[in-house]
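hey
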């Protein structure tokens, strides 16, 4: 799991998996897709537990384990085929009783929550691997329907705060 820096809480995205799940490719779709993302402590805690599980599977399988040093892999160390990941995701969603969402919707949820928390659009754009903020704004502008009212309040505070 060399793509996770556990000491500095950073995940580095530097490779992609083909759609059929058969080929790992160095690099990504675009230059900006190769990036480092800071992770919260809670995520790192879960990833440490996951790393322990992967090490156990590696020891159990011995020479049959194909070590690609992946964060997400099968018990044999091979990449998880995307359709199998989606199948497992759907089963977990159904078992949990929550509303059905696609696995990719987690990315959208992540960005939406960050924007609602007031994280700067540039930071959200970088986390998503967008080449510029326009793509992020075009996709997530609906998150802030009250932006005009907030802008009016902000200019009022800046211009008239002392007058009161």
């Amino acid at each position: 799991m060399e793509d996770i820096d556990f000491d500095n809480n950073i995940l580095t995205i530097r490779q992609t998996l083909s759609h059929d799940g058969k080929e790992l490719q160095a690099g990504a779709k675009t230059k900006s897709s190769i990036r480092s993302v800071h992770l919260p402590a809670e995520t790192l805690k879960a990833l440490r537990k996951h790393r322990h599980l992967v090490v156990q599977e590696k020891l159990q399988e011995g020479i049959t384990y194909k070590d690609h040093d992946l964060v997400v892999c099968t018990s044999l160390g091979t990449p998880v085929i995307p359709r199998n990941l989606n199948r497992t995701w759907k089963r977990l969603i159904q078992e949990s009783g929550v509303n059905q969402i696609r696995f990719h919707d987690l990315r959208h949820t992540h960005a939406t929550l960050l924007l609602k928390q007031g994280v700067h659009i540039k930071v959200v754009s970088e986390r998503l691997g967008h080449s510029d903020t326009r793509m992020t704004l075009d996709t997530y502008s609906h998150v802030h329907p009250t932006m005009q009212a907030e802008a009016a309040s902000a200019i009022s505070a800046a211009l008239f705060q002392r007058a009161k």
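Residues 57 and 75 are 6 Å apart (CA to CA). The two ends are 57 Å apart (CA to CA).
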